[in-house]
Design goal:
Length: 760
């Protein structure tokens, strides 16, 4: 056995012991390298454009021997300068070998070459390396083709992988030789010159050959070996989507296909194992004038560099970030409107909320994606970005589908529609999109394909707004309705824009759309701030009333001994929306902030006759002093029993007789607790911040309401209110007088009530 073969066998053993060997190192370099902002397809495309811009590059031409060589050397020098401070050394050598060999190809012949060109770049730790992997591409082309796929794109990928690995912060275990050979189309001459004559060839232990027999699709492993199955294992581990077939290898090596690659030279003349990778899709334009950069499939480049998954993740982050920033911006606008006192301007004119918040949401999303397109994805082809962000939309909807399905929610059918139809449209229009781009016909077909899921989605959005918009008029004084509605409008804009997001990246410019949206937003904000849109309407065909509740109430507070501590009466006014009385005060000046109430902590339910326990929703109310009202059927409330139980609790028995609707409020004071009662299963339920609320109503001829409470140590305040909703007790002159002052767009609910509080 020759010394050279012994050396290589030792090298194979070393590579095996190192884990996945050189292919694993290339994978590591691609995935973990410092790529500046990122390893982008745009950089590869830039290299590809430069290499092919000179036209066909046959061996011996100025385009091949001078222009392309100079560009490659210039890029390698940039890598050397960029990585000088790192742990790696980058050495470049321009080889111009002369030689000859015989080859069993096309019937067999002898080939002679004289001063063909190789650019060999050695990447190794600064401490040196004994074993190297060889990565091979060729930059020459046939005389009648610009050779974008065969094989300029592989050289472009290798340039960027070189830059990535050179800038790794951790030194490689073994070295890599990047060979840009300039005479492959002359039947594999330059590779022969390198492997048989170059001094670095003796240290090569394995190789990867990048070739093309088409312009894209999956890169196929169509040759590997000889033997050394660890190479295939390393490829499977390194590739994102490995694709290989032993059938392809045997067909190719049978000679049926009239082509050959540098793999044969390294295998037969270098006696080293390797892997032959090539793009095979659309071989119709192989070695023709149509082999141009614009026909290269970007996803093929991404798979070759192993970055598409990361690019998809980054693009998804851009989308999610745009949604977050958009929501934040629209919420700020909603808070600004609220602080200006223009809340609910949309209540009678829903379209105004779409004009203001919708234009803000769409405009902000459009602006963020435009900035990402121009600043982050500066030189990436628009078609590639369009396809990437379409995939982002598909991915995010898939995530929603998976989540809802896992939760067992039937509404998962909605994201299912938003996945199935766009995916089908993409498959049907993929060829049309790649060849004609975002043409008018593409847009029309695309919109037709999305019609069904989008019509259904818009219907669901309409249902949501149909439900929630009226609710905002009765949701209390504490929840800013503009914040809620602005959030819903933003969510609707996000959902509806999801599969139109990629059009931003397909468009040549978004300036006009941004200008229109910006102008519409500014104009709308000015109109809203001027108070042009009044929230309420008394139009009988489409009323939008303001809800106000007024009770003429008499309040009586008793001390521990049962004596009356104080007593008052007045008109208690509650607004059931966020605007409070701000729109009513100009019509009824006496209802103003000077008569706003406060909530004493020691009185059950603030000392007012709440019909339902909604005081946490309606914290702004007004109490206007008024003469006492005396219902003809007054409330009768009596403590009928008080006893101490054997376990030390105090049991209080009560009787109450009054109108058909009464409310009972219980407030145990510090140190006391309500341990039992006669309601339900006997266990007190629904402690509302230390208080309890019991709602009571009766029909005709109902007996006296009897109940008991059990108190564990301490004092409790018990209050009961009566509500007169009908009959002659419902009205009072003062109540009637106030109601007449309200504008016609206000809908008032009014009745007489009483509130009595006792301490035990």
């Amino acid at each position: 056995m020759s010394a050279m073969k012994k050396s290589k066998l030792v090298g194979f053993s070393t590579v095996k012991r190192s884990g996945l060997g050189f292919l694993g190192q290339v994978r590591s370099g691609v995935q973990k390298g410092s790529f500046g902002s990122e390893w982008k397809v745009l950089i590869v495309l830039k290299h590809l454009e430069h290499i092919t811009s000179v036209g066909p590059r046959p061996v011996g031409s100025v385009e091949n021997e001078v222009l392309t060589v100079n560009y490659l050397l210039q890029q390698v020098e940039l890598v050397q300068a960029e990585s000088a401070a790192g742990p790696h050394a980058v050495t470049v050598d321009v080889q111009r070998p002369t030689g000859s060999f015989s080859i069993d190809f096309l019937g067999g012949f002898t080939s002679y070459y004289d001063r063909v060109t190789n650019i060999a770049v050695k990447l190794e730790p600064k401490t040196g390396a004994q074993h190297f992997m060889l990565a091979n591409c060729h930059f020459d082309s046939v005389a009648n083709s610009p050779g974008a796929s065969d094989d300029a794109v592989s050289c472009a990928v290798m340039l960027e992988v070189l830059r990535s690995m050179a800038n790794l912060s951790t030194p490689l275990t073994h070295g890599v030789i990047f060979l840009f050979n300039g005479a492959e189309e002359n039947v594999l001459q330059a590779s022969h010159g390198f492997i048989t004559q170059h001094p670095w060839a003796k240290q090569v232990r394995a190789f990867v050959n990048l070739e093309a027999a088409g312009v894209g699709g999956k890169e196929v492993v169509f040759q590997t070996g000889p033997e050394n199955p660890w190479l295939v294992q390393a490829y499977v581990h390194a590739a994102k989507h490995p694709f290989a077939s032993v059938v392809g290898q045997e067909v190719f090596q049978s000679g049926i296909i009239p082509s050959d690659t540098d793999f044969r030279i390294y295998r037969d003349f270098g006696n080293i194992p390797g892997i032959d990778l090539a793009f095979i899709e659309n071989g119709f334009i192989y070695h023709t004038k149509y082999d141009t950069p614009d026909r290269i499939h970007t996803d093929s480049i991404q798979r070759a560099g192993g970055r598409y998954v990361r690019d998809l993740a980054y693009a998804a982050c851009v989308a999610l970030l745009s949604w977050f920033i958009t929501l934040l911006f629209v919420l700020i606008v909603a808070l600004l409107v609220t602080l200006m006192g223009r809340s609910m301007f949309w209540y009678s004119h829903f379209y105004t909320s779409v004009c203001l918040y919708g234009s803000a949401a769409v405009g902000k999303m459009l602006l963020i994606h435009t900035l990402a397109k121009n600043l982050y994805y500066g030189n990436v082809r628009r078609l590639d970005l369009g396809e990437l962000f379409f995939d982002v939309s598909l991915l995010l909807w898939c995530c929603v589908l998976v989540y809802l399905t896992q939760q067992g929610l039937c509404s998962a059918y909605v994201p299912m529609l938003m996945v199935a139809f766009p995916l089908g449209i993409k498959l049907l229009l993929s060829s049309h999109f790649k060849h004609k781009g975002a043409s008018v016909s593409y847009a029309v077909l695309y919109l037709l394909g999305l019609a069904l899921p989008y019509v259904h989605l818009m219907f669901l959005i309409w249902v949501v707004f149909e439900i929630f918009t009226p609710i905002m008029g009765r949701s209390g004084t504490e929840i800013p309705p503009d914040v809620v509605l602005a959030s819903l409008v933003t969510l609707a804009a996000i959902l509806l824009s999801s599969f139109f997001m990629h059009f931003i990246y397909l468009a040549r410019s978004t300036k006009r759309v941004l200008a229109a949206l910006g102008a519409g937003f500014v104009v709308m904000l000015i109109l809203v701030s001027c108070g042009l849109f009044f929230p309420y309407s008394a139009d009988p065909t489409s009323p939008r009333p303001k809800r106000v509740i007024i009770q003429h109430t008499v309040r009586t507070f008793h001390d521990l001994d049962g004596s009356v501590e104080r007593m008052d009466s007045g008109l208690w006014i509650n607004s059931f929306d966020y605007t409070g009385m701000s729109h009513v005060t100009p019509h009824i000046p006496e209802i103003n902030d000077t008569i706003r109430t406060r909530c004493p902590d020691d009185l059950p339910f603030c000392g007012f006759p709440w019909f339902l326990p909604v005081k946490f929703l309606v914290k702004k109310n007004w109490y206007m002093p008024a003469p006492t009202v005396s219902p003809k059927s007054p409330l009768e409330f009596t403590l009928v029993s008080k006893q101490v139980t054997e376990w030390g609790a105090v049991k209080l028995g009560f009787e109450a007789k009054g109108p058909s609707h009464m409310s009972l409020y219980l407030l145990p004071h510090a140190g006391a607790s309500l341990s039992g009662w006669s309601f339900g299963d006997g266990t007190p339920q629904f402690d509302l911040n230390g208080e309890y609320f019991i709602f009571y109503s009766h029909g005709l001829d109902a007996p006296t309401w009897k109940f008991w409470l059990e108190i564990q140590v301490g004092m409790i305040s018990v209050a009961i209110s009566s509500h007169y909703f009908f009959g002659e007790d419902r009205w009072s002159p003062q109540l009637h007088s106030l109601l007449e002052k309200f504008p016609d767009w206000a809908f008032t609910s009014s009745w007489v009530s009483t509130y009595n509080m006792y301490r035990y």
